[in-house]
Amino acid sequence: MGIGLALLIFNDASGDASGISSDTLGRVFYLGVLGAVIGAGILASRHRFGDMARNLALWLLVVLLLVAGYQYRYELQDVANRVTVGLVPGSPLSVTDSEGQNTVTLEKLPNGHFEARLSIDGKPVRVLVDTGATSTVLTTRDAERVGFDAEKLAYTIPISTANGNATAARVIAGEIRLGAITRRNMPLLVAAPGMLEQSLLGMNFIGALSGFDVRGDRMILRD
């Protein structure tokens, strides 16, 4: 250690010692000290060589798994998202490309519709994707879950639903999140009580994206 420190000190002025740069010499010195400490610890433990070799191999395997997990973290996250989509219908599969563009994929339900799990002002809401709906419409139950007082809303806006004509009230959502796609301060409609069975994701949200398309059983939304 003393010789290594001396070489580093004398090498600092010239930047070179026997053809070895200061950075390389510093790394060699560091690894040498680390190896000496580990070796001294192994010798002082007085364990059998076979036990020590097995323990070192296990620790090496743990380190390699951690490094591999970090290097492939995005691929592992993609696999986890795909598993979640398969287990929980409506779960969005989010992917970020090399240019930083977010893409969300929805799987078609057995009934032939696309369903999505939104987060509106931090509260989970299941919605039916309806490209024929001009606005995103919440049921009174979902509106109250988000935080709107359904009893104090003015249901004066006429809307057309699958169940016929109805009335709705206008509200503003601070944040709507669909996977990795987020929109803020977006106007929503709340259907009058009993007028809507399930909340709808309409074109005021979908139209704010750069594009979307349907490929077989998948709907792809691009931020």
Write the layout of secondary structure elements.
Layout: H1 2-14, E1 16-17, E2 20-21, H2 22-45, H3 49-71, H4 73-87, E3 93-96, E4 102-107, E5 115-120, E6 123-129, E7 137-138, H5 140-146, E8 157-161, E9 164-178, E10 181-191, E11 199-201, H6 203-206, E12 211-215, E13 218-222
Helix pairs in contact: 1-2
Structure description:
This protein is of the alpha+beta class and 223 residues long. Helix content is 39%, strand content 33%. 18% of the residues are buried. The protein folds into 2 domains: 70 residues, no CATH class; 133 residues, Beta Barrel (Cathepsin D, subunit A, domain 1), CATH 2.40.70.10. A hairpin with a 2-residue loop joins β5 and β6. It is elongated and about 85 Å long. Strands 5, 6, 7, 8, 9, 10 and 11 form a 7-stranded mixed sheet that branches. It contains 6 helices and 13 strands.
Structural class: alpha+beta
Low-confidence stretches: none
**Mean residue pLDDT:** 78
Largest sheet: 7 strands, mixed
Compute the number of strand runs: 13
CATH topology of the largest domain: Cathepsin D, subunit A, domain 1
User: So, the CATH homologous superfamily of the largest domain?
Assistant: Acid Proteases
Query: What's the helical proportion of residues?
Result: 25-40%
Query: From the structure provided, what is the oligomeric state, counting identical versus distinct chains?
Result: single chain
Rounded radius of gyration (Å):
30 Å
Instruction: Estimate nothing, just give the exact number of structural domains.
Output: 2
CATH architecture designation of the largest domain: Beta Barrel
Shape: elongated
Task: Just give the CATH class of the largest domain.
Answer: Mainly Beta
Cα separation of the termini: 57 Å
**Run of helices and strands:** HEEHHHEEEEEHEEEEHEE
